[in-house]
Amino acid sequence: MTTHRIFVAMTGASGSVYGLRLMEELLRRGHLLTVAASASGQLVCRDEIGLDLSADPQVATARLCKHLGVKLGVEVVAPDDLFVGPASGSAAPEAMIVAPCSMGALARIACGISSNLIERAADVMLKERRPLLLVPRETPLSEIHLENMLRLARAGARIIPAMPAFYHRPESVAEMVDFVVGKVLDQLGVENGLFKRWGER
User: Fold this and answer.
1) Which CATH fold would you assign to the domain 5-188?
2) What confidence tens digit (pLDDT) does each residue in 133-164 have?
3) Where are the chain's structural domains?
């Protein structure tokens, strides 16, 4: 299996568990992760999960590694640090995922606004024609939300709403989370058995 460098960002929508569960699966497969959480993403993660990523990046990295049960393979960077690899096309990762993706972050990415690392890295992925996967979690969706998603889809991003299915009769929240994470991995071309496929017995 080829090891890839993947940038995972978490913004201020509910659903930090999606990003963290995705990190677990990517690390388990040997990929190297750079992680950034926006200021609002840090607040949501602390509120929903009890994981504080707002500290110095080294401290935040240690906390995230402990939460994920790993020692290597992941590095937390500050959401405003434009001197790390993902901020430049010359050092762009193989893929970027924003999970969860707030409507505010999605709108700024759609408009090409690069006011922080997450937005700049997403802009880099689009201009370099590399995979950019956005996992929005919002309902209901306004016309503005839908237009921004369409604009991004036309620019090459992949929109993967956090919409778990129920045909496989999930028995826990974890199984519903795994369905969404499995769909993200599918879009990365990463084989997984996180959910029951349609037609499987």
Assistant:
1) Rossmann fold (3.40.50)
2) 999 999 999 999 999 999 999 999 999 999 99
3) 5-188
